[in-house]
Amino acid sequence: MVAAVALMAMVSCNKEEIGNSGVQAGAASDIVFSAELEQPGAPAAEQTPAEAQTKTSLGTTTGDVTSVNWVAGDKVKINGVEFSATESGTRTDFTTLSSFNAAATYYAVYPASAAGASDLSKVTIPASQTGTFAEAAISVAKSDTESLKFKNVASIVKFQVPSACSEITIESTANLAGTFNVTFNGETPSVGSVSNGSKKITLSGSFAAGTDYYVAVLPGSHKFTIRIGGYLSKASTKTVTTKRATFSNLQTLPALEASDYALVGAHTGWGFSNLTVLYKDVDGFAAYNLSGLSEFKVVNKTATGWDSSVKTNKGVGTTIDASGITEMSLSDNSNNIKVVSSSVSYDIIVKTDLSKITVQESELSGDATIYSITGSNGNWDSDIVFLTTKTNNVIVAKNVTIKTDVGVKIRQDKEWTDSWSCDWKALKVNTKMDCRKGYDCNMLFADGSSDWNKNYDIYVQLSSNAPSKFIIVTAGSNAPTF
């Protein structure tokens, strides 16, 4: 069950007049803004309003209400100018060394990093976070006087991890992060239109069992999929409704669940005493971020030697080159699976029925994006490969098998309404092609049938946060330039 905790904090700053000429840079500001909080409402069954907490450390809990405190040095932005808290506690002053002029309306955002660069009404929930309450308590205020009442505009998801880890990803069926317009009904904020939305948030840091962690998310209806170090921890079957100014408490995340299968290979010294266990995933079993892989086989995790429990790729010869081959039969137990380079990390994903296997460069080397490749690499609706970030504004899908002459398309997650293809009649290797949104023609692969059923890296350039150009190169080739 999702539970929620109410928060309460009263903030006030010493109030002084604001001069029309402003405060000159380089001098301590004489301007302070007073801020106060309305009291939270009565507790609800699963979620309790946490009206307007902007402070960055949690205080004591009395009943259903947890106090929240400012911390000296906290940064807020008021009409685009950064102010700092002078002391810790439920009351503090905010001062600035920057020039600041009186205005008809004041917009304030905590933390300062969440404020829009130029549009005072825009706020960003970042897709990369660290799990701290200070970062998650994104709050805003609007006033036509120097008196500000901060209110949370984001929802906060609270959780603990079952064991120490350094990366947690939270995915949803709806946007979790993005930049949005804040609209106000009186002093109460709400999320307006969202741009640059992301259905995935990555938390990086040092996470320990028994410690509470927090992540800011957009209010909405979500089905969460949570991964710890890439491995599946939780896949919700029920929709969770997150609301502004609430904690959604996921409690302690489930521990990773080992499957009945493991990997043996060069990375284990071909020994059965230290097998790499495959953990259960959404549609099968997986092992992530493996280095020194070279060659391997899939075995029963209780295997102690070469027996009929060993499963591997059916291929010609004693080994088969698996670099770039995304799916392979596991019906034979005689041959090894071999990757081209042992200097990179790989993810190994096995279907539940052991019928197919995916070998790909580790996604942990880049943040997954909302864009994917789909098409002749498999089933148009289910076999998708998410593009990951490699450099600024360039994303890539590695080792994609183009099986037929219909090519591939780029789409946002699994939404066909947001799909792109090239504006040429032919899909050519090593040629830059323009992306056109909603282009419906299939892209004919024109390099000859002998090049079908081979493997390619697909690089996509983003412009204005949408695909604009892409290049297809032979898998393992050097990254192209745009």
Any chance you could write out the topology, listing elements then pairs?
Layout lengths: L5 E3 L25 E2 L21 E6 L2 E5 L5 E4 L2 E5 L8 E2 L10 E5 L11 E4 L2 E2 L3 H4 L2 E5 L3 E2 L2 E2 L2 E6 L4 E7 L5 E9 L2 E11 L1 E8 L5 E5 L2 E3 L2 E4 L2 E5 L4 E3 L4 E6 L5 E8 L10 E5 L3 E7 L4 E6 L18 E3 L14 E3 L7 E6 L5 E5 L6 E8 L9 E7 L2 E9 L5 E5 L2 E8 L3 E2 L5 E5 L6 E2 L8 E10 L2 E9 L8
Parallel strand pairs: 1-4, 2-12, 10-18, 14-24, 29-30, 38-40
Antiparallel strand pairs: 3-4, 5-6, 5-8, 6-7, 8-11, 9-16, 11-13, 14-19, 15-18, 15-21, 16-17, 20-23, 21-22, 25-26, 25-28, 26-27, 27-31, 28-30, 31-32, 33-34, 33-36, 34-35, 35-41, 36-37, 37-39, 39-42, 41-42
Would you give an account of this structure?
The protein is mainly β and 482 residues long. 1% of the residues lie in helices and 46% in strands. The longest helix has 4 residues, at 133-136. The protein starts with 5 loop residues before the first strand and ends in an 8-residue tail after the last strand. The model is unreliable at 1-29 and 36-55 (pLDDT under 50).
Strand order of the largest sheet: 29-30-28-25-26-27-31-32
- What is the number of E strands? 42
Content of β-strand: over 45%
Shape, principal axes of CA atoms: globular
Class inferred from helices and paired strands: mainly beta
The biggest sheet, with number of strands, parallel, antiparallel or mixed sense and barrel status, is: 8 strands, mixed
Helix content: under 10%
Terminal CA distance reads 49 Å
Low-confidence segments = 1-29, 36-55
- What Rg is obtained from the alpha carbons, in whole angstroms? 26 Å
Number of DSSP helical runs: 1
What average pLDDT do the residues reach?
Answer: 74
